[in-house]
Amino acid sequence: MCGFVGFLTAGQWARDEVAPGLLERMAETIVHRGPDSAGYWHDAAGGIALGHRRLAIVELSPAGAQPMRSACGRYVMAFNGEIYNHLDLRRQLGTKEHSHPSPLAGGEDGNAGWRGHSDTETLLAGFSVWGLRATLERCVGMFAIAVWDKKERSLTLARDRLGEKPLYYGWQGQGADASLLFGSDLAALKAHPAFAADINRDALSLYMRHNAIAAPHSIYRGICKLQPGCLLTASLAQREPKIEAYWSLPQVALQGAATPFAGTEVEAVDALEALLKDAVRQQMMADVPLGAFLSGGIDSSTVVALMQAQSQRPVKTFTIGFNEQGYNEALHAKAVAHHLGTDHTELYVTPQQALDVIPKLPQLYSEPFSDSSQIPTFLVSQLARQQVTVSLSGDAGDELFAGYSRYLFTRNLWRKLESLPQSLRRLGAAGIQVLSPTSWNTLCKPVQPLLPASLRQSNMGDKLHKGAALLNARSVDELYLDLVTHWKPDDLVLGAIEPFTPLRGNPLSLTGLDEVQRMMVLDAVTYLPDDILCKVDRAAMGVSLETRVPFLDHRVVEFAWKLPQHLKLRGSVGKWALRQVLYRHVPREMIERPKMGFGVPLDEWLRGPLRDWAEDLLSESRLRQEGYFNPVPIRQKWNEHVSGKRNWQHHLWDVLMFQAWLTEY
């Protein structure tokens, strides 16, 4: 895994005496993504410049250095990611007529056949033989790519199917010096003199609703994220980027539901295990030490079990634990590790160790991001990096196999609500809100031990008040949007018009899918790439650790969508087929327990050790002076939280992470 930067311009920045130094300054901002080496290439006549920072994972020799030129001389590429089936692609390509020059950073002399065994070289050969799109359609992997076509004098940017790797782009500057900037991180684009750094208030409103900024938007006006599964082409002659999708998750979901797997349950579980096992096998390809994150939950335990089943030595696994009750999964992870025989490392994190991460977050994410599990994600990445350079993770199991409890909650609630007149629902909401959350907590406390474990809530009053807000929904889609919304930013972000997204105002065409399937698709195209994968990539790359996600092998994704829904949901339990795979390796009783998540006691920290820091960032005078937020609702939530009347930890963290980012940038 690596990082790259680049620009396309007809102006001064491409000149021979300017481009090399500028590229180096841009690339230095992402040295954490590639600490092993750097490479630079530019063509003043073409107006194109590419810079690359390398974290050597496969082909550690200079034969894997980038930017790299194709054997035919037509293409020059900077690449971030891994192509897991690249050796299969080489066999398809053969070696005839593939005399590959050295990477540009190391020279131009050619050799007969393949020069090394890097996937970068394989991709370039594929582009020469099959073309860019056809090559990417053959690839199994994660990637962000920038390719210069010397013949067409055009730039192509590409991003992997599910959005594991980041890729930003946008025109900046005026007149002759206008430049198309692109790269793996906003910090690199900011280092270019043409970068304007105008904050996009509309994107800020998206962030306040969902704690992350959804593609194609970014926090800066004029800068976009390339959406997953897309190719972008631009040139100096045709400056307006042309974007096309080469793979579509909604289409995969619709096709899978229309042509479901027709075998028996046992055959379905066999097929799923075989696909996952192959995905894990391919993703264990590395010339450096490799391990896995292990929480002890279904997803990470499945990945580790399939790794250990294919490894001749104990797999290195990593877990962090917290001493605070309700946040610690380390004991479960340790039990799974012991059963599987992994080489397990755990770290119990002190509050101070976790708090020390917070000042690093603005630089790690380079735009506002406020999923608070970013803290333990960074800590487990830091722990793993002490022993390995690559770590597999169990992300995406929930989106593929209906694992989130909110899916069933939303479906069941809507089926009850839609039978009631909206006037009656409004009356019910008003009735709930007559009592404060604290009063509801007092009333519910004697009843809590009598409820099933799945219904017990630490703060029932908060849940009831949020539920009251949901009663006014007019459709299941609107209900789900309300459920995953933090702030409704209408009167919060000053001067903003919230952009439409698949969750709001720009619905996907998902006719033929049931309510739960619709929510799974929406999560897979929004929450998964914009929050989960962003969180993992930035946290891990902050310590120069490559992460890989076997569940996002597109063959696994496509098969998962062919599984009938009853093979995912059984009663109130999700991930049925995935659980059956895991139970072949780990005893059921070791796994069956309520889902805990990967959180931190943020509510307590904001009332305790973080209180002075938060008070400074949330002061009314500061908010008014900066001019991005209406301070009234923010101060109200802060005062309620500090007093203990309400738990507004996630809402406040959204504001605090923007404020902390604003201070740095």
TrEMBL record:
Full protein name: asparagine synthase (glutamine-hydrolyzing)
GO terms, molecular function: asparagine synthase (glutamine-hydrolyzing) activity
A Pfam family annotated for this UniProt entry: GATase_6
Coiled coil: none
EC number of this enzyme: 6.3.5.4
Domain Glutamine amidotransferase type-2: 2-237
SUPFAM superfamilies, A to Z: Adenine nucleotide alpha hydrolases-like, N-terminal nucleophile aminohydrolases (Ntn hydrolases)
Enzyme class name: ligase
Organism: Comamonas terrae
Reaction catalysis annotation: L-aspartate + L-glutamine + ATP + H2O = L-asparagine + L-glutamate + AMP + diphosphate + H(+)
Family: Belongs to the asparagine synthetase family.
Domain of life of the source: Bacteria
Encoding gene, per UniProt annotation: asnB
Stored InterPro entries: Asn_synth_AEB (IPR006426), Asn_synthase (IPR001962), ASN_synthetase/amidase (IPR051786), AsnB_N (IPR033738), GATase_2_dom (IPR017932), Ntn_hydrolases_N (IPR029055), Rossmann-like_a/b/a_fold (IPR014729)
Pathway: Amino-acid biosynthesis; L-asparagine biosynthesis; L-asparagine from L-aspartate (L-Gln route): step 1/1
Keywords: ATP-binding, Glutamine amidotransferase, Ligase, Nucleotide-binding
